[in-house]
Write a structure and sequence with these properties.
The protein is α+β, with helices and mostly antiparallel strands. The chain has a single domain, classed as Glutaredoxin (3-Layer(aba) Sandwich), CATH 3.40.30. Helices cover 33% and strands 29% of the residues. It has 6 helices and 11 strands. The strands form 3 sheets. The chain has a 5-stranded mixed β-sheet. The chain has a 4-stranded antiparallel β-sheet with strand order 1-2-8-9, covered by helices on one side. α1 packs across α5 and α2 packs across α6. The termini are far apart.
Length: 206
Amino acid sequence: MKKNLLSISFVISLALFGMSVMAQQTDSAGDQVLTVEGNLPIEQRGGEFTLFGKQGAVSLSDFRGKIVAIYFGYSQCPDVCPTNLSILTAAMKQMNPQERAHFQAIFISVDPGRDDPERLAKYTAFFHPEMIGISGAPADLNPVVAQYGAFYEIVSYSNSEMMYGIDHTSETYIVGKDGVLAAILSHATPRDQVLAAIRKELELEG
């Protein structure tokens, strides 16, 4: 019943938003697969959103005038998330105080069922104390995933205590001071390139 309600919530929120694709099927192992992905050209990606963390509601517009790096993932991710968040943290540590004052890193969990605000706060603090972790119910979360052209796929395991796993986008999204998506960095982009992309938007290179 809980799984059915979750699926219904996904369908309604994505259909109303009108710019994402969802597919539900059964793989060869008999596991249920639920996919949420954006379907937008790059120039139409990004935009305002509001999700929730330990500090309450967090909107992209809260950081207008700052450069924002956004990463979609989940706290139980075994390797992809730690890799990219560690690189982002390394880039942050190379920033001078003026740069850090005009930058914000945001981790958006695509696993709200397990990643409550408290867990997200602890997870992001492990990487950097200034990183913010947020998520939301599917009706709030899925439109954000779609508008950034991101992706996640929930795979329910029929023979596992974990119950389900998540495949997801491994890109980092750089948003400019005006709130417009400025760059998309691929998985495991080196620290120096991440820092250069951020500094380009900060206009503080050199």
